[in-house]
Design brief:
298 residues; alpha/beta; Conserved hypothetical protein from pyrococcus furiosus pfu- 392566-001, ParB domain; elongated; two-stranded antiparallel ribbon; 11 helices; single chain
Amino acid sequence: MGKFDQRAEEFGMLVGAHESARRVEELPLDWLTPDPGNPRTHFDEAEMAELAASIEARGVLQPIIVRPKNGDGKHVIRMGERRYRASLAAGKKTIPAIVSDAGEGADVLADQIVENDQRASLSSRELALGVERMLADGMNQAEIAKALGRSKQFVSLYAAYGEMEPYLRDAIDKAPIRVLYDLHRAARKHPLEVRDFVRGFGERGVTLAEGTMFVTSLKVPAETGAPSAKAAPAAAPVEPASGKRVGRAGRSSASFQPSPFKVMVGTRSARLVLPDRVRVVFDDGDEDEVASSDLSFD
């Protein structure tokens, strides 16, 4: 179980514990109003139709959480807008709810992000805007990572969204956040090339492999076709941590094996030499350690 899933499970248990300690009320739906600060801004029609059918058949099994009545006489929904919307679609008149004024600001937003993503994954845009608001509320990246149960690298990818050029922010629904982060950094030295690349996304968007290949190409100097004035000297043998010497024709320790992945080093063909296990970063910014044998190229 990943850190975020564990955090979501703990949050669900926490809500359950609070439900047993607080009074559950049947509130009329017309007494409720969505939270304008809810990090979820998109509601999938097919998923909402399924949820409405389930509520019509079995009712709402877990109460939503709302704030006490505001000046307009409405309860603002803290958690459970999907259940609220589906109940309206199912023709329900009331919904089980817990009235609570606990939590403020970034803490409430963190709980909303976890609760929303536990039920139906938030989009990259929703996560980025959520992290942006938590930063604006005074939390730092380490605190956000802890609150969400995510890695610091995950948070840093989404935190950079607020610093990106508008054309990159607009492309968040068409590219993995990792690609946008790398393009954001590459644009410091190659603004025109990056802008042209993003302009070509079209409706299909871009994959992680395509984005990574483009960013890598920016780092490779154009070949002139002229041979170098002086050949580089042969690499000296290296003394690895295992104590075994590794030279040009030598072998590394048993934990490092040549992989089937072909690469080019200048004009020479080669294969990657990988350890038995490597760390990978997924499109959504999560990290994990996997066996090298499980890797494949797009």
